[in-house]
Amino acid sequence: MSQEKVDRYKKEKANRKKIMRREKLMSIVRKAVLTVAALALIGWLGYSAYDIYNSNKERVVAEVNYDAVTDYLNSLSE
Prior knowledge:
Elements: H1 3-14, H2 16-55, H3 67-77
């Protein structure tokens, strides 16, 4: 080995714990980001499916009789 390679190896060996800790932290961060993205995707798909299900349901229609209000307003304007 050349002296340059030996020096690089010694430097790497001296910082190995720091390098391993950084790689482990980056792995955890990467997994966390992917987990959050997957949960967001699953939540969005579930919400969309629920919304489509509810939009296909028949809605209850209520009729309101405004005759009394109309009669009252007409009596006020006379």
